Amino acid sequence: MSTVKEQLSSASQQEQKEVDEATTKAKSRYNHILSLYNTKLAKLKDILAAQIRLESEIRELKLWLTEFENRISEPWKFKGIGLEEYKSNLKSHSDIEKKINQNSEKVSTILNQGEILLNDFDIPMYSALIPLLMYSDVRITN
Fold first, then answer.
1. What is the pTM of this model?
2. Which of 15, 47, 69, 116 is disulfide-compatible with 11, CB 3.0–4.6 A?
């Protein structure tokens, strides 16, 4: 670094001006790349948070599906053939239908979120930025 300073001090005014312009241009490019990097990093953090949220919702849905499957697979036991038994079975069937409808919205939401997450994540766009930033950082500091 000191040899560069010595060379600049012995250089002409025009050469110093060219070096200053080149340095300013390089710093401007570096700041632009750093800004892009920070934007992409924020986007990646958002994607990661969405992925974690989606995985949690999928676990909850799997748990509900397992419980529901166990409940459905149990054989129905009739205690009798009267009106009360019929009403009880009808209510049970209605409760099952309500739970299915409630969770069908959740399934739809999870599927949509998964699709959005897959569409947001574009690996080549992010992986190409990292070497460029590292190279620029090395060039500016040297």
1. 0.59
2. 15
The tens digit of pLDDT for each residue in 13-55 reads 887 788 888 889 999 999 999 999 999 888 888 888 888 988 8
Task: Please say whether the dihedral angle defined by the alpha carbons of residues 57, 63, 66 and 67, taken in this order, is positive or negative.
Answer: negative
What residues contact 19, with CB distance under 8 A and at least 6 apart? 8, 11
CB 129 within 8 A of CB 40: yes
Residues 6+ apart with CB under 8 A from 125: 40
Please report, for residues 30, 34, 50, 102, the alpha-carbon distance to residue 139 in angstroms, rounded to integers and kept in the order given. 9, 13, 35, 57
Q: What is the pLDDT of residue 3?
A: 63
Q: Which phi and psi (to 5°) does residue 77 adopt?
A: -110, 120
Helix axes 83-120, 13-73, angle to 10 degrees: 160
**8 Å CB contact between 129 and 69:** no
- pLDDT tens per residue, range 64-100: 888 888 888 888 777 777 888 888 888 988 988 888 8
Is-contact 126 40, C-beta < 8 A? yes
